[in-house]
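step=predict obj=Cellulose biosynthesis protein CelD n=387
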Amino acid sequence: MEERALRDGVSVEAVKVSELGTLERARWNALRLANPLLGSPYFDLRYLDVAGQIAPGAAIAVIRRGDQIEGFLPFQRRGLLIQPLAAPMSDSHGLVASADTSLDLADILRKLGADRARFGGLIGPGTNEGRGLSVRHAMAADLSDGFAAYEAGRSAGFLKDKRRRLRALERDHGAVSFSFSAPTAAMLDRIIAGKRQQFRRTHQYDIFACGWTGALLHRLAGAGEADFGLKLAVLRAGDAIVAAELGLTSGDRHHLWFPIYDTAYARYSPGSLMTLETLRVAAEQGIARVDFGPGGEAYKRDFAEPAEPVFEGMIHTRPRAVGRTGISGLTRLSRRFDSITGCEPGLVGQVRGASSFVTAMSRRHPRVGAGVGLGVGIGLSLSLLAE
């Protein structure tokens, strides 16, 4: 536990999630309930309770002005770098505070002793677009009026195509069935194995190689309640699983998280068929909004509409060439290295992860050369990931 005071009378105390008391938890829930931007499952204390036990360096900043709690910031430390708590497993993150708060995120980070902080899905109060953060928008499917109303707002051609593919899948491979429920341990392992295979196939960094990320999913599976927890969508044709996706639910919000599909069925668009079924059944179960994460990828536009702005970038908290609170945007490469930093709390693991990633990239782009890739990986890991 540590506490630092700001000149304006605001104090910041870093505590473990398990150290939050009854008053702090009540204040958290009241702030979250009053601010629609904090409706994501990743702001649910039940998620953070589990993640706080698993993620290395996890903590909560409790922010007070006098005796009043003004807000909270879930985070994890990587030397002088701060990331969202449980990064890269927290797709939405930010200050838990009132919508009209005067708290400034850079000031909070400075009082936490951070040299810099990286965010990839920053939403909520204490941030603004004008400071140089890159901006995207959350993509979300509105199911508040039911699935029929949702379908009426989608492209008729898109829906017709998916119905045709569904009929073809059933004709060629047997009766199609769908389930949307809490996952078994065996199905969780299957999802993790499928994602790891996909990471290898697409030459991406394997976020499950470090161990704790998979443990987090298994721990979440055991912490489910009626209105919170993991849900697994599974689309089958006959006895074969053609697509599946793990998601996280909190109240009437569901966040799509880890999808996999069998490439042998690619011609049927199994991922799209599964997503439509997920939305249909989610609406039947009282889900009002399904989150697809930020970005304008074509498949997201097929299913969802832009919602609130989502910020990403790096905040420098100390005077540098970029200024007092210099903020720079993230590139695709730096996002990959952010994942490595989040998964690997130590320098040795970061170097190993960075080298592995760049070596995989050199296989994908042979002109880079494995030797050059290794040197770049170590150099970038030292400069971007560690202090």
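step=describe
Residues 346-385 form one domain.
step=end
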